[in-house]
Amino acid sequence: MSNHTGAIGIAVSDLDRSVDFYTRVLGMQQITTFALPHMDEVVVGWGRRGAAIVLMHYTDGSDPVTTNLPIKLVMYVDSPTEVADRIRAEGLEIEREPAPVPTLGNAIVGFAKDPDGYLLELLEAPVSSETPKLERATREGP
Question: Is it true that 1-66 and 67-142 share their CATH fold?
C-alpha cells in the first residue's frame, strides 16, 4: 500500500533548541530544512524507519501556541530508560519513569516532555522483526 504518514509537524518556540534536542538527545538525524515566507522548518527523523517530525518555527510575527499542547509523539527506542536519563539530564520533565507494561508484552514504556512540553511516549523497540503489539492493536482494533 502506498498510503502512509510521511511526517508530523509541531510548532516550536526555539528552533535551534528543538533541533538540538531531537538530534543530540534523541539521536534523530536532520533530514532537510525549508525556509518558507512565514516559517522555518527542520525535518528530523531516524532515516527510512517511521514518520519524520517537522519542527516548525513561525517567522511571520504570529505567535502560535507551542507549549504543553495535548499532543503525543510515540517513539520506538532501544532503551527508554537511557533516553529518559538523557532527557532528565537536559532538565526536562519525565512524566512517567520507564517501566514494563504487561499488556505490551512487558515492553518498557515511559513518558517525557520535549523542550516545548510535547509529550513523548518512549516505547521499547521490539528486538525481533515481529510487528510490535501496539502497532497491531492500532490496525486491528481492540
Answer: yes
Domain ranges of the chain: 1-66, 67-142
Q: What is the pTM of this model?
A: 0.84
DSSP label at 131? P
Selected catalytic residue, list 121, 124, 130, 140: 121
- Please indicate whether residue 121 is annotated as part of the active site: yes
Q: What is the pLDDT along the chain (142 residues), one digit of tens a residue?
A: 577 788 999 999 999 999 999 999 999 999 999 999 999 999 999 987 778 999 999 999 888 887 778 899 999 999 999 999 999 999 999 999 999 999 988 999 999 999 999 999 999 988 755 555 555 444 444 3
- Nearest alpha-carbon partner for 20 in 50, 49, 47, 55: 55
Q: Does domain 67-142 have CATH number 2.70.50.50?
A: no
- Phi/psi for 28 (5° steps) reads -75, 170
Instruction: Name the architecture of domain 1-66.
Output: Roll (3.10)
Q: Where are the alpha helices (DSSP H) in the chain?
A: 15-20, 80-89, 133-140
